[in-house]
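Explain this record to help learners:
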Amino acid sequence: MIKNSHRLGFTLIEVLVVMVIIGILIRAASVSLSGVSDKAYVESEASYIYKLLKSMPEEAILAKKEIGLGISNNSLDFLEYNEKTSQWEPYKGATGKSNYKLDESVKAELEIEGNNVSSGNSGKPAMVFYSSGESTPFTLRIMSKDDATIGFTIRTDKSDEIIFEEKK
């Protein structure tokens, strides 16, 4: 009788153990990378909004219009003041849209003079970019809904310069 001392493969237990180890490593990698992707996504949204808001003072000057910004239902609403009707109306401007809808995973908070505001359905903006180049001082926070440590701030300083900062 000849005994076969060399195995020609792996046992089922060995294969299962390797699969479990690979699964744990993949899960650990995806958890650590999900924080990075959340931050990158929120930063991308905040960066786009910053660029949009940064162009508003110049747009107000060039269009010779008062352009307002409100926040409602997780969207930023742009309005223009119509002097003929003395009403605020949707402003489409250079973007072609009167509002910017935030992604479901991102939330925004607008602060004017230390108070959180939401224009809701009032039809009036919470802050204004004036045709003179001035604007209402504001702080806009763009944050992850899932991770309170991820966020960015867009605000004006004393000289009406719009500044972009990462949450500290």
